[in-house]
Amino acid sequence: MKILVAIKRVVDYNIQVRIKPDGSAVDIEGVKMGVNPFDENAIEEAIRLKEKGIATEIVAVTIGTQVNQDILRHALAMGVDRATLVETSDSLQPLAVAKVLKAVAEREQPALILLGKQAIDDDAGQTGQMLAALLKLPQATYASQISIADNQATVIREIDGGTQTLSVNLPAVITADLRLNEPRYVKLPNLMMARKKPIETLALDTLNLSLTNSVELLKVATPTERPAGVMVKDVHELLSKLRAHEGILP
Description:
Layout: E1 2-6, E2 9-11, E3 18-19, E4 26-27, E5 33-35, H1 37-51, E6 57-64, H2 69-78, E7 82-87, H3 94-108, E8 112-116, H4 127-135, E9 139-149, E10 152-159, E11 162-169, E12 172-176, H5 188-194, E13 200-203, H6 235-244
Parallel strand pairs: 1-6, 1-8, 6-7, 7-13, 8-12, 9-12
Antiparallel strand pairs: 2-5, 3-4, 9-10, 10-11
Family: Belongs to the ETF beta-subunit/FixA family.
InterPro entries: ET-Flavoprotein_bsu_CS, ETF_a/b_N, ETF_b, ETF_beta_N, Rossmann-like_a/b/a_fold
Domain Electron transfer flavoprotein alpha/beta-subunit N-terminal: 23-211
């Protein structure tokens, strides 16, 4: 069984992002970048399925410029078998990304497509669902547990107020939640070996896709600062302050 894992290069989650002075975008100049955390969970799950003998090959794919090779090499160091870069300098929105991944999936013919439930840069959380719709495949989102048997995937997914268990026939699209697993630590020797592995590069133009952005980004701004909280000694002081401000209590 072949697994296709889609990953995205984002600002490291430990970094405090900065806005460009003109408010046009987030400033990533000189900022540490890495694999989207949810996508790293997807990579880990694919590797675990291979270690169990369920998967035979794992292919990682990302979209972007040549600098995106760093996250593909990270995936290779984790244990992915092959890596593909769809090269473009354009900024693609979720539907366009889903169309590109559809083209790659039709080329690779995987039995399972894994990706993170969302990217931490735009928090759109749409690509997996759109990809499943374009491929006309069953989908299971926000997966916190995956088991595969008899050409079916049983997925436990988190919903408001609890969990839901789904059974989907393969091939299928599954999006990973953080609680799906704990991604393994990548050792330096594996990173060094990954640098020598080939990465297939596909020019976006060669996929013959019609990609248009339907949403225009007007401005990026930092959230309005909220006033600091007030510490109270006991519940009586709390009630007193609530009565004194905004008429919260009678």
